[in-house]
Write a structure and sequence with these properties.
The structure is a single chain. With about 80 residues, the chain is mostly helical. The protein has a domain of about 35 residues. It contains two helices and no strands. α1 runs antiparallel to α2. Belongs to the SecG family. One of its GO terms (molecular function) is protein-transporting ATPase activity. It is found in: Cell membrane. This is Protein-export membrane protein SecG.
Length: about 80
């Protein structure tokens, strides 16, 4: 596989790692968390979770899937590119 593929995956992995950390920190914890700083903790619907929390959950899962795909892609790239591994 070409080398640019690995560099692209590494750049995407670094970016998604940063985003995933940020998104996890934005979730509401038991004590309020950083999400209350941005208005996520103010509103709540009848279901017990606000629209902002649901969207935050969706974005977190989406970034987590991309992060996991990068890990698997890099593993496959290493297996194909480096003989004997």
């Amino acid at each position: 596989m070409p080398m640019w593929f690995a560099y692209t995956l590494i750049a995407l992995l670094v970016l998604t790692s940063f985003l995933l950390t940020l998104l996890i920190l934005l979730h509401r914890g038991k004590g309020g968390g950083m999400s209350s700083m941005f208005g996520g903790g103010v509103t709540s619907s009848l279901a017990g979770s606000s629209v902002a929390e649901k969207n935050l959950d969706r974005y977190t899962v989406l970034v987590g899937i991309v992060w996991f795909a990068c890990i698997v892609g890099l593993g496959l790239w290493l297996r194909v590119s480096v003989p004997g591994s």
